[in-house]
Each structure stands twice: as C-alpha cells, then as structure tokens.
Design a protein that fits this description.
- Helices cover 35% and strands 15% of the residues.
- The radius of gyration is 24 Å and the shape is globular.
- A hairpin with a 2-residue loop joins strand 15 and strand 16.
- The relative contact order is 0.16.
- The N and C termini lie far apart (77 Å).
- It folds into 4 domains: 40 residues, no CATH class; 174 residues, no CATH class; 190 residues, no CATH class; 85 residues, no CATH class.
- It is an alpha/beta fold.
- It has 16 helices and 18 strands.
- Strands 1, 2, 3, 5, 6, 7, 15, 16, 17 and 18 form a 10-stranded mixed beta sheet that branches.
- Helix 8 packs across helix 9.
C-alpha cells in the first residue's frame, strides 16, 4: 500500500504544517547564529526543549564580577542570576562561603518540577571568566557525563545497575571542577581519602611524582564550578546543607568552607560505591578500611545507616574540558595558535580542515620527549567563527579562527571552557585582555542584545533544544547600547542593568586595565 493511501488529508495537512514550522525555525535559528549555513544537526527539536541556567553567587559590586558577566554576555550565555545579591546575615557571601549553598538552594527550590531536567551552571562570581561559547560547553558536558556513566555501568555490571532506582543508580550527571589538592587539607576527611584513584590520566602526566602541587594529578573536587540537571543539583545542595547541619564546628578554622562540605558529600558517595561493589560480590561483613584503602591512621570512616542515600551522581571534570582551575596549573597552560595543517608546513583559513598547534614543553620531564600536536576541535572552531561573524558588519574584517590564541591545557589537550583563578588573582587579571574575544567585547555586547532579548536557542544536544533560562527584560532597547545588558538579582531582587552593576568598572572591562597585584 502506498503512503498516500494510508494518510488522510488531515494527516497530510499536519505534516505540511510541521515542515513549515521547521522551515521557519531553521531560518530563525540561522539568524541567531550569524552563520551563512546551517547543518541538519543544528535544527531545533520540535518536541523537546529544556533551559540552561547560569547562576553566579555574588553579594556586591566588583570589577572581576563584571568581567565574568562580560565574558558570558559576549559569548552568548544566558543572562545570569546573581544569587545572594546584597543579602545579609547567613545569606551574605562576603561574610561566609556557606551563603553560596543557601542562596543557590533558594533558587533551585523556586523551580517547578517541569524544570527538573534543565541544566544549571553555577560559577563563583569573583574569579572566573569564560573562554568558549555555551553550545560547546553543553555538548562537552553530555559527552563527559555519558562516558563516565558508561564506565560506572561497566564497573558494577548492567544487571546490578538496572536493579536500582534512578536516584540510587551509580551514574554521573553533576560535574565539578578539579583540584590538585584536597582543600581544606585534612587527610582524615572522607572527601580527601575515599575518592577515586583511577581518573584516566596516568601518574606522572603533570610531572614527576614528587609531591609538589603542580605535579599532582587533579583528583579532588573544587566547588567553584558546578554543572548538572536542576533536580540532581537540588538534591546535592540539600545534602550539603544536611552535612553542614550535622558537622558545623564554629571553632574549626575552615568551618565556613562550602568546598569542605561538598567534597565530603562526594567522598561519602565514593565510599558508598566502594562498599556497594564489595557487597555485590562478597556478601560479607567487611572491614571498611580494607575495602576502601588509603588515607591516614585515624581517618574518619563514615557510618552508613540502612536506607541512607549516598549516591548523588557527582563527578569531576578531570580533564578540564569545561572547568580549568588555576592552583598548581599555571605551567601547563599555554596560549596556542592553531594554524598548522595536518602536514605541519602551512596554514589554512577554513574551519572544515583540521588545524593543529605544536607543543614543545616537556611537562613529564621525559629524557625521550618528542614535540606533539594538539588538534583544534571542529565544533569549537565553527562556534568561534559564528561568534565573530556577529560583529563582522560592525568591525570590518574579522580574524580566522586559525589566527586566534586559545589558552589550552597541554596535558589534557583541551581548550578549556572557563578559567577559575583559585588562589591568587594576578593570573586572571593578566588573562582577561589576552582572551580571543577581548578586542570585540563591546560590539559583541551590542550584537547579543536582540538575541538575548528574544531568547534564541543555544544548541541542540542530548535530543533537546536548549534555550536560555533567563533573557533580557522585554522593556530594554537596543538604543540603550551596552546598558541594555545586566543580570537578575536572585528570584526576588529584580533587574540590575549594566550601568548600575558595572558602570564604575568599564575601564577594567573594556580597556583591559590590570589592577595592582595586592588587590
């Protein structure tokens, strides 16, 4: 039987409407990217849509906060929500780092159940800048978490994994930034000793195993950058608040460290996974010290109660595809220009052709070291090109992606997504004016205004079209220029325009002013 005989005229009409809708959606999406061409993979899904939230815990004004917001705006991230803005008491992040946990929890609790599958990215407000656009960040997030979940399924076995509820199943949906030391340093803490030993980066990759911070593997959790689904993030932050409630000691030096409590929630998860895997095969009353080796004499071993939830789907972005932390990593970060062809003896201006950069630094201190090439991912090259095309009419000739300098982790070979300047802030102050988009920050602001106001889609990933959770207010106008941009204050504080937030710091943002080292 022919297809035409199986479909009624109403079904045909429905199909026609669907194709018309898809056609105009493609045109709209093309306009939002500034690209002259669009692939089928970029067509927004017609049946599944989710939102991408950008949360920035911040209590008050600072030029580094403005640089974080400027990099997000220029690259096309959702309009940010400032959690804890001008709050007082235990919600004031300038008084306690635990305010970050409480104010973000407040936001997550405000979301309806329909937002459970939304993606939430939380970043510290005063020492972070973005380097790559959000479409690539989202694509990398799904690639990393799916690979990690598959590895966990292999570790436990599919039958065991499928026997558990979705909440209790070992999987990875939340990504934290990596850290080269367990901070605050206390090797008795479960967040220091019970964590995974195998992170798929060989020992010595960052240099000789001599105990020096910069030679360490990034095995631990940093709480300044977190990304995951809204539901799982809500459960994680609730577990952290429970941990604070049960373990807060006002006399302890680091009692206000959100990282300590979050890393211990993760440590209990990893301890619980090790115990579960042991029981899966041995079915005995085991010695936890034998099951989960490591740590020091006197380490605190968690007591797991019957029915206690320990699985929170937490993982670490060990390879810094999304999050690059600074402490111990200065020497493995290089500004690379990806202008070599596969043959290594020429240049190309097309993003369709693979381009490379050569690394000559002998990080491993190997006597037989050979220079090696790092390829520029094609999707990143295309995304950066689309970003630059947004300002081509305003600035004239724009550079090829092969002319740009992109800061790269030369050990993991990733052009990282954002930089988190843990420790001293002098590095990030110097980095700001070296970022590839810095010469175009102001025109990118202007080009993004209509897109951020309309809430254009960011990317199609994981079978869904991702839209910004927050846009510019409907009453802002392009005639306001950069002052049409800004951020939202919590869930109840209203709109904060650029002039109010950052008007005082425009020299630091647009001119690249570097403050004194002791700022």
């Amino acid at each position: 039987m022919q297809l035409s005989n199986r479909l009624t005229r109403w079904q045909w009409a429905g199909l026609a409407s669907l194709f018309v809708f898809a056609f105009f959606t493609v045109l709209q999406y093309r306009g939002s990217t500034g690209s002259d061409t669009i692939s089928i993979s970029a067509i927004p899904s017609l049946d599944r849509a989710s939102k991408f939230h950008l949360l920035v815990p911040a209590s008050g004004y600072h030029f580094r906060l403005c640089r974080a917001l400027a990099s997000a705006t220029a690259l096309g991230y959702p309009v940010a929500v400032l959690n804890g803005w001008m709050k007082e008491g235990d919600l004031d992040a300038s008084k306690t780092h635990l305010a970050k946990v409480r104010t973000v929890m407040h936001y997550l609790d405000s979301l309806p159940p329909s937002s459970d599958d939304d993606l939430v990215l939380m970043i510290d407000g005063y020492d972070i800048v973005f380097q790559i656009p959000p479409d690539i960040l989202i694509e990398r997030y799904f690639a990393i978490t799916k690979a990690a979940t598959a590895k966990l399924a292999s570790r436990f076995g599919p039958d065991y994994v499928e026997s558990l509820t979705a909440d209790d199943r070992p999987q990875q949906t939340i990504l934290f930034g990596p850290e080269k030391v367990c901070y605050p340093v206390d090797w008795n803490r479960v967040g220091c000793w019970a964590v995974p030993q195998d992170i798929d980066i060989p020992a010595g990759a960052f240099g000789p195993e001599d105990g020096q911070l910069h030679h360490n593997l990034p095995r631990w959790l940093n709480s300044g950058t977190i990304m995951g689904p809204a539901k799982d993030m809500r459960l994680l932050f609730a577990a952290t608040l429970d941990r604070i409630s049960g373990h807060y000691d006002p006399n302890y030096e680091f009692s206000d460290s959100d990282q300590m409590y979050m890393s211990d929630v993760w440590g209990v998860q990893e301890f619980g996974r090790s115990i579960a895997r042991h029981r899966q095969y041995f079915h005995d009353d085991m010695d936890p010290n034998a099951v989960v080796p490591g740590g020091v004499d006197g380490k605190v071993v968690p007591i797991l109660l019957p029915g206690q939830r320990t699985e929170h789907h937490i993982g670490i972005d060990y390879r810094s595809a999304l999050f690059q932390t600074r402490a111990g990593s200065d020497f493995i970060l290089e500004m690379l220009t990806y202008n070599e062809t596969a043959e290594g003896n020429g240049t190309t201006t097309t993003t369709a052709t693979a381009t490379f950069a050569t690394v000559t630094q002998n990080i491993t201190e190997s006597p037989n070291f050979m220079p090696f090439k790092i390829p520029l991912p094609a999707n990143l090259a295309s995304s950066i090109t689309r970003t630059l095309q947004l300002v081509e009419k305003a600035v004239g000739t724009i550079p090829s992606v092969t002319e740009l300098r992109l800061e790269t982790n030369i050990v993991t070979q990733n052009v990282y997504g954002l930089f988190h300047s843990t420790g001293g802030k002098d590095y990030i102050d110097k980095l700001w004016s070296q970022l590839w988009f810095f010469p175009y920050v102001r025109p990118l602001f202007l080009a993004r205004i209509p897109l951020l106001k309309a809430g254009r889609p960011i990317v199609v990933a994981d079978g869904r079209t991702w839209f910004p959770a927050h846009n510019l207010p409907s009453n802002v106008s392009e005639s306001q220029g950069i002052n049409a941009t800004g951020a939202w204050a919590d869930i109840d504080g209203g709109w904060l325009g650029w002039q109010e937030l950052c008007g005082t710091f425009e020299a630091e943002v647009f001119d690249g002013f570097t403050p004194p080292m002791d700022d």
